[in-house]
Amino acid sequence: MAVNKNCMLFQHTDWSRMELRLAENIARFRKSRGYTQEELAKRLSISSQAVSKWENAQSLPDISLLPALAGLLETDIDTLMGYIPKKKAVTPYEERYKIEEYYWGTMPGEMCLELLRRCYPTRPLRLLEVGCGEGKDAVFFARNGYQVTAFDVTESGIEKAKRLADIHQVEINFFRADLHDYRLDEEFDVIYSSGVFHHILPELRREIMENYIAHTAPGGMHAINVFVEKPFIPAPPDSDGGENWVSGELFTYYRDWLLEECRETVFDCRSGGIGHKHCMDTVFARKLPENGGKENGGF
Asked: Which stretch of DSSP H or E encloses residue 10?
């Protein structure tokens, strides 16, 4: 029987990535739940050396241990292994993006223009958009010279984003990922996200923000907004299940950065076809080199 070597190589590579993702997730969830390796091992009736090997991708947990391991880490087996089932609707936007029209339109948001003025790509700038939806902002950045990587949890959104990029003849690295599970392992000059971070669970916010900060180049910028809770603003009619931040919470993560602008605004919105209001905190923060100069990122 003929053996397809390319297929075998792909399967081996795919399996290796799964092993690494599982190792990373075990370590991440263990730390976020406050367990030491020894404590987790004791609860599973195994050695701490076994847990260490899992987290260093030197071995895999026995399949019989996965349910108990996922339960202790307060997650599920799919999430622990970094797998997002294609048919699992993790957000109502999976269905909303299936309409022919673009749910949010195709014009870039105002934050895009602000970011362009602050970080005009006189040289190629690596930009990551977290939660790109149907791709309108990612396409805008690519058309203006950024090297764009963008991800979203919705399969329908990514498909429409790719179509929009094809229409405008720009190359963008779109991929599907859940921001709760995905962590950066490469450096970016700009990290941009609009209307997405309220989906980050409160217990994961610090870990995710520290990951994004650590993988931002010196001189790089974050342009991020979040919905914040206000007692005088009712929940929107098209609520997507996120959890608003506390007013000013976002800004505290950038105490060691230059805050070029941070603001809080209340604005009208008609998403879902019914008028309502939101309160939003927005930050444009720059990661200065240690000496305060602009080398290695002078844009």
From this structure: helix 5-32
Q: Whole-number mean pLDDT of the chain? A: 86
* Residue 83 CA: distances (Å) to CA of 86, 131, 163, 255: 9, 18, 25, 35
Q: Reduce the DSSP state of residue 221 to 3 states and report it.
A: strand
Residue 296: predicted pLDDT? 44
Residue with tokens 């996120």: 242
Q: Which residues contact 52 (CB under 8 A, 6 or more apart)?
A: 37
Instruction: Name which of 102, 104, 125, 105 is nearest 115 in CA terms.
Output: 125
What is the spatial distance between Cα 118 and Cα 112, in angstroms, rounded to a whole number?
10
Distance of CA 118 to the CA centre of its chain: 22
Alpha carbon separation from 165 to 23, 111, 169, 173, 190 (Å, rounded): 34, 20, 6, 10, 20
End-to-end CA distance of the chain: give it in Å, rounded.
57
How much is the CA Rg of the chain, to the nearest whole Å? 21
**288 CB-near residues (< 8 Å, 6+ apart):** 218, 219, 257, 258, 294
Interval 250-259: pLDDT, tens:
999 999 999 9
Maximum CA extent, the chain: 70
Report the alpha-carbon distance of residue 76 to residue 185 in Å, rounded.
Answer: 23
User: 268-283 pLDDT, tens per residue?
Assistant: 887 767 788 889 999 9
Q: Strand, helix or coil at 81?
A: coil
d(CA 279, CA 108): 20
